[in-house]
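As a warm-up, study this chain.
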Amino acid sequence: MYLGRIGRFVIGATLSVAVLTGCGKFYWGKANASKEDFDRDNRECARQASPTPAAADIGIVYERQYRQCLTAHGWARGQHINPPPGWYRGIE
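Now compare it with the structure written out below.
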């Protein structure tokens, strides 16, 4: 009986962690910003965070620099299963 409780606890804890960390994708949001605003900032940040212009065109960026750039432009990153209006997918 004791091992049964531990087993149920381990399974429950594992499922909880999987649900909390594995669900949803990351999106970027900014108050009163449009899709066009995001596209403009996204392209600019991709160029700034990319090793070459050609790499930026295909989405190869230095992830940390890319995120810092969008954050500096006022965008916030959040994880959503179903993103609310005004949240957009970046390069990730």
